[in-house]
Amino acid sequence: TNAAIAAGTTGGGATTTAKTGPAAAGAGAGGGEVMFQFFGPKIDSGRVREAMEKMTERGRIGNVSLVPGTKLSFRQDVGLMLQSVVINQKGPIRENTEFILSCVAQGSSTMSFRWYKNGYFVNVTKATRNMWTRLLPLDSKDHYTALLGINRANRLDEGIYTCQVRKYAVMKRKSFGGT
C-alpha cells in the first residue's frame, strides 16, 4: 500500500517509509509499505523524523496500529527554489543576433522546466524559427540550469519570457521581459 500525504507546499521534501509486517522483519510474505511525503523547510526535517520514530516506537500512527517489526526509513530531497531568469546580453537585442535565456533552479532531477512567451508555451520543435532548449548538468550547489536560445532574433521574439519549474505538486515561475 502506498499513501502520500502532503503537509503544506513549500520548499523541500522529506519522504518517510514505514515497512510493516513479517516481510519487513525478513520472515517472508505479508506486510506492506506505507510512504508519507512531507513538504517543508529543510530545518524541519529533524522534527519530522523524530515524530515518525516516536509513532513507530508506540506502534501507532494516529489511529492506525502498526504490525510488530515495523521498520522506518527516511529520505530527504532538495527543495525546489527558482533562483533566477537572466539573459546573456545587456541592453536591447539587435536583430539577427543570438540571445540565450538562462533559468537557474535548485532541486532534484525530478523537476521539470518549461518556457513560456507572453503566457504561451514555447514549443521549440514546432517553432518556425531556429530556437532550442537545453538542460545543463547539475552543478556543485544542486543547481540545474535550463537554457532557451534564439539563434537569429527578430521583432517576433519581443515579449515576456517565463520559466516554469515543477517538482511534484510544487510549481514556481519567474519572468524576464522586454527583449
Would you give an account of this structure?
The radius of gyration is 22 Å and the shape is elongated. The chain has 2 helices and 13 strands, in the order E-H-E-H-E-E-E-E-E-E-E-E-E-E-E. It has about 180 residues and is mostly beta strands. It has helices spanning about 20-25, 45-60, and strands spanning about 10-20, 30-40, 60, 65, 70-75, 80-85, 100-105, 110-115, 120, 130-135, 145-150, 160-165, 170-175. The N and C termini lie far apart (about 50 Å). Residues about 1-10 and about 20-30 have low confidence and may be disordered. A hairpin with a 2-residue loop joins strand 3 and strand 4 (about 65). Helices cover about 10% and strands about 45% of the residues. The protein folds into 2 domains: about 10-75, no CATH class; about 80-175, Immunoglobulins (Immunoglobulin-like, Sandwich), CATH 2.60.40.
Distinctive features:
mainly beta, four-stranded antiparallel sheet, disordered N terminus, 2 helices, 179 residues, 46% strand, Adhesion_GPCR, Immunoglobulin-like
**Proportion of residues in helical segments:** 10-25%
- According to DSSP, the number of beta strands is 13
Global geometry? elongated
Helix-strand string: EHEHEEEEEEEEEEE
In a few lines, what is going on in this structure?
The protein is mostly beta strands.
How does the SSE layout of this entry go?
Elements: E1 12-20, H1 21-24, E2 32-40, H2 45-58, E3 60-61, E4 64-65, E5 71-77, E6 81-87, E7 99-106, E8 112-117, E9 120-121, E10 131-136, E11 143-150, E12 160-167, E13 170-177
